[in-house]
Design brief:
This protein has about 250 residues and is of the alpha/beta class. Helices cover about 25% and strands about 25% of the residues. It has a seven-stranded mixed β-sheet with strand order 5-4-1-6-11-8-12, with helices on both faces. Helix 3 (about 85-90) packs across helix 7 (about 195-205).
Length: about 250
Amino acid sequence: MNGMILAAGLGERLRPTTNTTPKPLFSIGGTTMIRNTIGHLYAHGIRRIAINLHHLGSMIKDNLKTGMPRDLTLWFSEEPVLLGTAGGIKGCEPFLKNDEFVVVNSDILETADLDAVIRTHRRKQALATLVLRPNPRPETIGILEKAPDGRLMRYLSARHPDYAALASPPAPMMFTGIHVLSPDIFSYIPGGRPVNISEEIYPPLLAGGAPLQTFEYHGYWADIGTPASYQAAREDIDKGFFSPYRIPI
């Protein structure tokens, strides 16, 4: 099993801090966001990890040159033009194409049991398995619905032009930013241009009957996408609600 960390974003809502520090290098509980994510993947036996880079990517790459275990391989995909979520995954195809892989956003904190997610993915023979959690703000966050057997039934991005109308009645789940993908996914992602997975990949796959599965998660989850959410996450760590993952060396 391989892993991928999405780390190319601009972090626009965190400016001006992200003008000089990329979001994956934000400090969190004595480590950084991206090292926490690497530590989480490593704790679940994942030893080959791809990372896509764009904004201040050289800073991230230089930071990860030290403090890594010898049995861990990091592979970087540098994007001269920001390729979006699916485009970033497509850019890592040379490294990831021979096995299933876990994709995690670099700006979230969570404690999902990745082993259990992987088992579900394999048991259901899914093309993709999305980790979902209860949706606290269905009026503004993209919504998902699942069948009793865990199959994904609906995927509605908050960016959809008719989101306000289509989101009613609200669905109770949201995407966490964690998914397990089979390498067959690459054949559905066009190359050479930006591609957003929430708009261009998952909805048409779902409409076409592709085997998309879900895994429901009820543990700690936070993102650091805004100054307020970043501060709240730091306070959660101080209160003991979350302990960052460490990378053994």
